[in-house]
Design goal:
5-stranded parallel beta sheet, single chain, 4-stranded antiparallel beta sheet, alpha/beta, Arc Repressor Mutant, subunit A, 2 domains, 229 residues, 38% helix
Length: 229
């Protein structure tokens, strides 16, 4: 499963170059050409990190960062052609996780992105995941609950991994389709609900009053970090 980032930048050519390089290294970058569109995409889907340009028309990167931080802890790497120290300080004070001046090499950008993910969201790149009593061996495609192995279908496993990598965060149905690599005709949004129901049963969650894998009406699903939450 690839890491998924949102690149908010009015420089289309730069965004294309970054996306092409990241794709070769297991990172899918989706592009938003302005701050408003970027905020809308963040509301509609789940991302592992945001690459955010500072100098954009309309909503600039600093304002976008402020609005992101008001409702999300997704890692933010700010990018700017400006070399002014004040901009860097303001960006970091607003909650940016890192700050890179343009022009930046895609190789350095990837290295800094990976470093931010390791610090802020280790599950996004980990091959072994643990959420409460659930232990997932991503490479071995094995799941255990309280030490007992649980047999899942391929779709159920992929959906669980997508949710576990973002435990505690709501993941939309659209995002689950993309994140699990199941955007084919066999698995649509309606089918996701059925697979989630089966997944609950296999994980030992109460389908009538789920405490582990919860539905957020109109938004998607969330795998809670603490079943008592």
């Amino acid at each position: 499963m690839t890491v998924r980032v949102l690149h908010i930048d009015d420089d289309h050519r730069f965004a294309e170059l970054v996306a092409a390089y990241l794709a070769q290294n297991g990172v899918t970058a989706e592009h938003a050409p302005d701050g408003g569109r970027g905020l809308s995409m963040l509301d509609q889907s789940a991302y592992d990190a945001v690459l955010l340009d500072v100098m954009m028309p309309g909503l600039d990167g600093l304002e976008v960062c402020r609005r992101i931080r008001a409702k999300s802890n997704v890692p933010v790497l700010m990018l700017t052609a400006r070399g002014d120290e004040t901009d860097r300080v303001v960006g970091l004070e607003l909650g940016a996780d890192d700050y890179l001046p343009k022009p930046v090499s895609p190789r350095e950008l990837l290295a800094r992105l990976r470093a931010v993910l390791r610090r802020a969201q280790p599950g996004a790149v980990a091959s072994e995941l643990r959420v409460g009593a659930i232990a997932i061996d991503v490479n071995g495609r094995e799941v255990k609950v309280a030490g007992a192995r649980v047999e899942l279908t391929g779709v159920e496993f992929d959906l669980l991994v997508a949710l576990a990598r973002r435990a505690g965060r709501v993941v939309s149905r659209d995002a689950l389709l993309s994140e699990s690599g199941r955007g084919d005709a066999m698995v649509g949004e309606r089918a996701i609900d059925v697979h989630i129901s089966h997944l609950r049963q296999k994980l030992g969650d109460d389908p009538r009053a789920p405490r582990l894998l919860k539905t957020v009406r109109g938004a998607g699903y969330v795998l809670v970090r603490d079943e008592g939450a």
